[in-house]
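Bench log, entry 3. Co-assembly request; chain sequences pasted below exactly as received.
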Amino acid sequence: MTSLLNVSNLSKSFIQHQGFFRKKEVMAFAPLSFDLERGETLAIVGESGSGKSTLAKVLTGVMKPTTGHIRIDGINHSVQQHEKRCKQIRMIFQDPNTSLNPRARIGRILEAPLSLNNSELTPEQTQQRIEDTLKKVGLLPEHEAFYPIMLSSSQKQRVALARALILDPKIIVADEVLATLDVSVRSQIINLVLQVQKERGISFIMVAHNIGIVRHISDKILVMHEGQMVEYGDTLQVLNDPQHIVTKRILLNQKIQIRK
Ligand SMILES: Nc1ncnc2c1ncn2[C@@H]1O[C@H](COP(=O)(O)OP(=O)(O)OP(=O)(O)O)[C@@H](O)[C@H]1O
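Structure output for the full assembly:
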């Protein structure tokens, strides 16, 4: 059976100019491959600079890969096909304070992906979709008239999730969305993600630091180190019996006991 997401030999390098004539190639991440099934969550962990954010951006098509393929339901996923791509895979960024336009009301923020993606909805259906999506993330239809500054951090992160959900994607990629939130808001957002996942069978790819959360929410884990995928597999299996020194070090740094 075809996996929902199949990533093969995906890599990304940047060309850095050093003076007029010299160029240096920086490998953000080396060729890597993995699969993700419907309704599963993959956690990407690793130390700073290991390539996690670049991988997240390449997966969502924000950046073009240097090598490799991304297939969704067996179909090649291309950066050029912006419209189709947005309906399949959407990204939520770390800080809703910078990712939400402060000058736009919430209704406009949620309407934008629909109009940018040539939605065939009538104005009434668009309005209904916005209200339904707001409700789905625990907000009220009245929040449509609010500006981001009028919302709490939890509400802003809910709007970011609503913006990702509104096109009904198969996969959502979240880059460190929990890092800036305090503990109580963090658990609210985690519960919301788990609920949305259960209801709609969406797959999540989460760049995350906190191994306690990774253990709680993810089915698979991918450990990065200096642009290499050093370990990948079932989350509990990897966390209970890590094979790579980097995984062991991450667990040790967070005082997580290895069970084997
Ligand atoms: N636009 C860019 N141009 C050149 N090099 C880049 C660019 N973006 C990232 N890199 C390099 O790619 C490597 C991986 O960076 P990336 O931001 O993906 O790591 P990360 O694991 O997400 O780090 P952090 O946890 O600190 O966000 C780093 O060496 C970084 O300097």
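The mean pLDDT is 89. The pocket of adenosine-5'-triphosphate is lined by residues 14, 16, 26, 28, 46, 48-54 (CB under 6 Å).
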